[in-house]
């Protein structure tokens, strides 16, 4: 039974693939039920990722031992810091490679989420509690608003694929700006400007990736869809946090 079942599942999976190839919009020939099930699945995964992030980053922030260790500026702390910063990049490779292989894709997704959560925790260690809470609340409101807007716009026939090249260019500019801020500490105003620009860019990313989720991702790409949305939300939170700190 197991073998037959597996074969049947594979066959069904293959059919789904055949019906909706990636490069084809496939948006009209599929059933709305299937697409909604896929969208729901992605939002459930992203919600769980956010819970993991709050738990891990919160535990790091609220545990005095962890805080003292990372703020101690010892070699061990520096090593741990570097490992946490690099870990998502290392996990990203197998995660992207196995993104369609169930259940290993979810295992890597979980590890990746924990790694990103730890880096978020690190970023919060030097910030004041109220500011972190404010940034998180603002992020939640912005994400909810942008998501609702994108679904409404998609229903009206609007398309956001054109944002792609602009967002790529914006990311490059943001990266150069961030590099300048690291090399030449430019003070609070620069941080505020950076935070505001980055917030706008990642808000646009949320619209772009939500639009892709509604129309373009094929059903076996739920891990890829979840990662992109999750990272957009995390980056938006980081940007708002930097802006709020700069505005203080």
Automatic annotation (TrEMBL):
This is BI1-like protein. It is a multi-pass membrane protein. Keywords: Membrane, Transmembrane, Transmembrane helix. It is found in: Membrane. GO terms for cellular component: membrane. Belongs to the BI1 family. The chain crosses the membrane at residues 42-63, 75-97, 104-125, 131-154, 166-186, 192-210. It comes from Lolium multiflorum. The lineage of its organism: Eukaryota, Viridiplantae, Streptophyta, Embryophyta, Tracheophyta. Pfam families: Bax1-I (PF01027).
């Amino acid at each position: 039974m197991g073998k037959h079942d597996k074969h049947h599942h594979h066959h069904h999976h293959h059919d789904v693939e055949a019906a909706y190839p990636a490069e084809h919009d496939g948006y009209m020939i599929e059933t709305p039920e299937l697409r909604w099930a896929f969208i729901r699945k992605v939002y459930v995964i992203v919600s769980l990722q956010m819970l993991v992030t709050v738990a891990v980053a919160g535990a790091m922030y609220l545990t005095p031992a962890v805080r003292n260790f990372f703020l101690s500026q010892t070699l061990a702390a520096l090593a741990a810091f570097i490992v946490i910063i690099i870990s998502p990049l290392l996990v990203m490779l197998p995660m992207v490679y196995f993104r369609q292989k169930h259940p290993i894709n979810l295992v890597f997704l979980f590890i990746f989420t924990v790694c990103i959560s730890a880096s978020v925790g690190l970023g919060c260690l030097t910030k004041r509690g109220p500011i972190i809470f404010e940034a998180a609340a603002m992020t939640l409101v912005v994400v909810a608003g942008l998501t609702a807007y994108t679904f409404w716009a998609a229903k009206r026939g609007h398309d956001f694929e054109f944002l792609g090249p602009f967002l790529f260019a914006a990311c490059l500019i943001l990266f150069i700006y961030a590099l300048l801020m690291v090399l030449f500490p430019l003070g609070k105003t620069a941080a505020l400007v950076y935070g505001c620009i980055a917030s706008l860019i990642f808000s646009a990313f949320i619209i772009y990736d939500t639009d892709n989720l509604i129309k373009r991702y094929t059903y076996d790409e739920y891990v890829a869809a979840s990662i992109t949305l999750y990272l957009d939300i995390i980056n938006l939170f980081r940007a708002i946090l930097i802006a709020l700190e700069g505005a203080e």
